[in-house]
């Protein structure tokens, strides 16, 4: 089962990256991003790509320009996640054969992203979009559009987001915080997977 949960490992360092990735994969989370404002993110991503094989989709978050997209494509990354909707970044991502999840908050941004070729929409920040906001936007989006709630979405409100039309989630600090032990990542991941499976079956 491929769960629509993107693990956001903001702040992770290269020595931690592979162990954290393996722990997440074992827990059932196979979409993993390292935000580019983490320490040495390209080194972490390269190590994870090499170690993951076909067990996970490894990518980058907080991708703001096409130069970063090119560099990530050369490393073998498979997914680009951004906090904003930049058509140039989306187009470069798709040209490089990677998945594109730009950040959006308004209908205008949603349609701009989709026209540029985005694979799905990162509804960000979720705490501002809210499930009610997503439900309203969902009414006008093309059928089949993938929407991920990010920032303010977690096990306690997965059901509310699903009812509003969320397909999945980006989970950051509920999964990983700087300096956390592997055992704690395992515990947090198990809780999130259990809650997701209960709601999404």
TrEMBL record:
Pfam families according to UniProt: Aldolase
Signal peptide: none
Alphabetically ordered keywords of this record: Carbohydrate metabolism, Lyase
Pathway in which the depicted protein is active: Carbohydrate acid metabolism
Molecular function as annotated in GO: lyase activity
Keyword Lyase (UniProt): yes
Entries under InterPro entries matching the protein: Aldlse_KDPG_KHG (IPR000887), Aldolase_TIM (IPR013785)
Quaternary data: Homotrimer.
Similarity comment: Belongs to the KHG/KDPG aldolase family.
Protein name: 2-keto-3-deoxy-phosphogalactonate aldolase
Species in which this protein is naturally found: Thalassococcus halodurans
């Amino acid at each position: 089962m491929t769960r629509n949960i993107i693990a956001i490992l903001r702040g992770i360092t290269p020595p931690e990256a592979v162990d954290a990735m393996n722990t997440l994969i074992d827990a059932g989370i196979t979409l993993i991003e390292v935000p580019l404002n983490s320490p040495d993110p390209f080194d972490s991503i390269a190590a994870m790509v090499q170690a993951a094989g076909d067990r996970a989709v490894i990518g980058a978050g907080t991708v703001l320009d096409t130069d970063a997209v090119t560099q990530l494509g050369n490393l073998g990354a498979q997914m680009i996640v951004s906090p904003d909707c930049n058509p140039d970044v989306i187009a470069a991502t798709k040209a490089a054969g990677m998945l594109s999840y730009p950040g959006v908050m308004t209908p205008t941004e949603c349609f701009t992203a989709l026209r540029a070729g985005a694979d799905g929409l990162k509804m960000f920040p979720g705490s501002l979009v809210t499930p009610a906001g997503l439900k309203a936007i969902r009414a006008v989006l093309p059928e089949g559009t993938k929407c991920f709630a990010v920032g303010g979405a977690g096990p306690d409100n997965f059901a509310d987001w699903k009812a509003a039309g969320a397909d999945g989630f980006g989970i950051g600090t509920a999964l990983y915080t700087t300096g956390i032990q592997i055992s704690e990542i395992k515990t947090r991941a198990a809780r999130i997977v259990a809650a997701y499976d209960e709601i999404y079956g």
